[in-house]
Amino acid sequence: MGHLRRFLFQQAVFVEKLLNKEVKLAHDLLQKANSTIDKEGIQELQNEAFLKLIDFVYYNNNYYRSLFNEHGLLPESFQDIKDLSKIPLLTKDIIKSKRDQLLTPSIPDAECLTRTSGGTTGEPIYIDVNKQARINELYFYYRGLNWMGWKPGDTMVKFFGGSLSKNNYPTLKSRIKRWVSGEVFIPAFDLNSDTAPEILQLIKNQGPCFMQGYVSSIYTLALHAKQLNFKGLKIKGAFTTAEQLPQDQAELIREVFQCDVKGFYGCSEMNCLGFQKDMDGPYIIPDEILKINETTHPETGIEHSFLLTSLYNYRTPLINYLNGDNGSLGNSDPKYSTIDELYGRTGDLFVRRNGSYISSIVATQTMQITELTHKIKRYQLVQNDYDKVEFKYQLFDEAELGEDELQKILVMYKERLGDEFVITPLLTENFISSKNKKHRLMINLMSNK
């Protein structure tokens, strides 16, 4: 079955190349990248795309033409992608307030899809993405999955927002497309103790397969599988998305499903940002279609704030875009740039009275140091005021946490957060989730006051 799907997948790509110029351009770019043997070759592709983008936005985009003129910039002011530093930062608030100016009028609406992402005030922002950018992302997404171990023809079980009771394959065309791509969609929102046996059986029926979804979804499924002592699954790999991957949760997923657990990094505005080739390894950045830099956040002072530049989105050009994520960049791969560590979202950072911020990576690092993760099933830190933090936690069934062990956790968090914080423990099964039902490890409720 896998060989047939792989053959049909390859034939579909071949036909699309003949019928669709954007697909051919994406395929050609991928072929050039794959035939390039070193960083210099990839950087040449990146620089070429960057200079074309700069030339395009100056002559076709109202926002960037005005911005460049204001700062005395011309297309000739840019020699390579290092000159990105000449361009002022693009924030979510700018995108929200200047959406009309950011839209390139020469690219018709019919060629674009609109994506949404949260703004700093919680109001969504809208990003229109042209066809070439979307197809490039799709091609390099599949290459990233290939890096992680997936091959065309392999079954991929994907957790998504939806319901078991809904018809998730409404047309014959969509059913055929899902079958050829090997994708099986499972509603993450319905995953609970009642539905877990049905979902696990559905995955078992797929035979050898990969899984992809939020960390919280795959981790929760692993917990249910362990509790039910469910046998017969043949998971070849688990790919987590959209959230930090705590080491203790990765280890439990690996233990239960007997497979490597790797992270895929993307955001609403740009879906294809990084892939882990190795478990616990760095995220490999597809430098051919984007550039990631670091900066100190101009408002919060947080270091290692990401600046994203999409090299092919000409409809809503995102250049030096401050997307709200934080991490440490590196060059540990011989061919590509890397994200050596993801720290989390700016919105999940705690704030001190003096205005300084605390990275959300404190949550996972501290819990691992306590060596008590085998007892704590789920946890969350919630900041309600400048000096007040609630430590919410849930224990594994039959696990007991002694008072001395609880105090050890609280003392360690206090050492890392600061003496000013009063940390109150709460044993509970109720945690705060995002609108997409993602489990967040650190939550700052100060903005709600």
From TrEMBL:
<protein>
    <submittedName>
        <fullName>Phenylacetate--CoA ligase family protein</fullName>
    </submittedName>
</protein>
<dbReference type="GO" id="GO:0016874">
    <property type="term" value="F:ligase activity"/>
</dbReference>
<dbReference type="InterPro" id="IPR053158">
    <property type="entry name" value="CapK_Type1_Caps_Biosynth"/>
</dbReference>
<dbReference type="InterPro" id="IPR042099">
    <property type="entry name" value="ANL_N_sf"/>
</dbReference>
<keyword id="KW-0436">Ligase</keyword>
